[in-house]
Amino acid sequence: MFKSVVRISDIMKKHPRSLITGINGFAGSYLAELLIKEGHKVHGTSRKLSNLENISQITKSITLIEADLRDKKMLLAAIEMIRPDYIFHLAAQSFAPASIDNPKETFDINFFGTFNLLDAVKESKLDPIIQIACSSEEYGLVYPNEVPIKETNPLRPLNPYAVSKIGADFLGYQYFKTYGLKVIRTRAFNHEGPRRGEMFVTSSFAKQIATIERGFGKPVLYVGNLTVKRDFTDVRDMVKAYYLSVIKCEPGEVYNICSGRAIKIEEVLNYLLSISKVREIKIKKDPKRMRRSELPILLGDNTKFVKVTGWRPEIDVHQTLSDTLNYWRERVNPT
Most CB atoms closer than 10 Å: which of 36, 57, 207, 301? Predict the structure, then answer.
């Protein structure tokens, strides 16, 4: 149980109602588990035919509602039915390379989906606290003298995903200023761990290694740019931060959530290789894994968030990587 949050009536109602968009996703599933432990009545939106594997162990403890972010009527009906005290807006098209191939879908989900959600809350006349999960990708091109990155850093997006998240971020601010919605914006830096989609770098490495360990295919691991640096936080620490944000942060404000330490992707790969059961794995560059506009470094400054909430990441990156590899060891198959 997350001990640093006091569960008494002067902070929050007993058994508050929480709505998570994208509850079946990577972070959404961990957040749902945390909220259940904290006594929340957890509801979540999911699109028709979505993969529910991540929440398969908690389906009896949550209420799933079919709702597409692109349909405001569905969202409004869900909000009016649930009457949430808290909304955690996590649903998104979150893979930056996919946004280059299909920018329209990315904007439909990330920008217009956020608009539909906020507008539905406005029309409902309810007054929940809303956390919007924004992204460090919004900062984009960061110069060497600008790290670690503060919330005041210029936004120089380098892909459609980042632009769509800036739009969602600023919509949250606008709805706070114009309509008084209690919107808190969190700019999360890279968060990793078990259940991470296989297209993301740490999960991609881990799945490839697990596949090689099982003897499927040649012992070759395909990589993209190994020189870039990223600020990694375990997803289980990240969702604790999301929870704290709605309890302790100020509506209208934006907060970086990050570890405050950046490591090279090459270091991530080397650690995973060091705990692999196969000693001889060949590393091969894959042009398809190279981004057209790569961010050389994303290193965040979490001072503002830590000062307000007292949050600190607790899970070491090596534990995150080990857990991710074990996750894929349990799931790889010949196909």
Answer: 207
To which H or E segment does residue 179 belong? helix 160-179
Q: Are residues 306 and 325 in the same domain?
A: no
pLDDT over 90 (residue 8): no
- Which residue in this structure is represented by tokens 């606290």? 129
Q: Are 175 and 305 in the same domain?
A: yes
Does one domain contain both 48 and 158? Answer: yes
Q: Let me know whether 207 and 171 are in one domain.
A: no
Torsion angle of C-alpha atoms 301, 303, 306, 312, degrees rounded to 10: 50
**How far apart, in whole angstroms, are the C-alpha atoms of residue 29 and residue 194?**
11
Give the residue among 268, 298, 263, 262 at the shortest CA–CA distance from 283: 268
**249, two tokens:** 């942060």
pLDDT of 4 strictly over 90: no
**Tens-place pLDDT, residues 290-327:** 777 677 889 999 999 999 999 999 999 999 999 999 99
Of 128, 35, 115, which Cα lies nearest the Cα of 79? 128
The verdict on 270 and 280 lying in the same domain is yes
Residue 180: band (very low, low, confident or very high) from pLDDT cuts 50, 70, 90: very high
